[in-house]
Design a protein that fits this description.
This protein is about 40% helix and about 20% strand. It has about 250 residues and is of the alpha/beta class. An 8-stranded mixed sheet has the order 1-2-4-3-5-6-7-8, sandwiched between helices. Strand 7, helix 7 and strand 8 form a beta-alpha-beta unit. The longest helix has 18 residues.
């Protein structure tokens, strides 16, 4: 297992495959394990970088997550890119990881080639984000399949990780913290927005939100799958890999 030190703490990462470097960024309450089943679809074409953000998976734990969690995780990802020194790397972020990928590109376009932002709410959190999140997490913690997923990703302390993540996201919503460190119109790398029309964990007007984002970002395209749940990279695995691979190799 490989680790690098970020602000005195160990962050787990792994590199597999050959070709252009591609970093996959996991979502909230998950870890890099969420990509285990789809990894072969990417490692045959790319040098794939996986990481567990601080407090998740095999990385060191933290006492709390900051309210600007997605920007904090973006800085972790950028620190790993500097550590690896692979040159410009394309980023694929899914769910919460999509905000991470975009923040990383806004902060350091010199390190980022392209961005794929998959299955996330876009420029703002959905109107009922806070109450919906509370209900969703309460249900998930008592749902057998969700509990298995959490434990698979996080280990025995999964409930603490989920609770800390929930607290951070509720604080973000309550404080109305900007989701991006800079205006999206300042993004200087190509962007692919991806999602599924049947995804019930994203805002209902996701296609419309993506369309409006496309008008703001200088180089942006949108791909919406007609079917599939959350996230698209998993529920439309083979088709999503084809779309992402073509986008990065253009």
């Amino acid at each position: 297992m490989s680790y690098f030190i970020y602000e005195t703490k160990n962050i787990y990462y792994q590199v597999t495959g050959h070709g252009k470097p591609l970093m996959l960024l996991h979502g909230d309450t998950a870890s890099s394990k969420m990509f285990e089943m789809v990894l072969p679809l990417y490692s045959r074409h790319f040098k794939v970088i996986l990481m567990d953000f601080l407090g998740n998976g095999k990385s060191d734990r933290v006492e709390r997550f900051p309210a600007d969690l997605w920007h904090s995780q973006a800085m972790q990802a950028l620190s790993l890119l500097e550590h690896l020194d692979f040159g410009k790397v394309s980023l694929v972020g899914t769910s919460g990881g999509a905000w991470v990928a975009l923040n990383a590109a806004l902060e350091r376009p010199d390190l980022v080639e392209k961005v794929v932002a998959d299955s996330f709410d876009g420029r703002t959190l959905a109107e009922n984000f806070a109450p919906d999140l509370g209900k969703e997490r309460a249900f998930a913690k008592n749902n057998g399949m969700a509990r298995q997923f959490y434990e698979w990703c996080q280990g025995e302390d999964w409930e603490t990780v989920v609770d800390l993540n929930t607290e951070a996201l509720l604080a973000c919503a309550d404080s109305k913290i900007p989701l991006f460190c800079r205006p999206l119109k300042e993004l200087r790398v190509p962007l692919l927005l991806m999602g599924s029309r049947e995804d019930t964990m994203c805002r209902k007007d996701l296609a419309e939100e993506y369309g409006q984002m496309k008008e703001e970002v200088p180089d942006c395209r949108v791909h919406m799958f007609q079917t599939g749940g959350h996230p698209a990279i998993g529920t439309n695995a083979e088709c999503a890999a084809k779309v992402i691979t073509e986008f990065i190799n253009e």
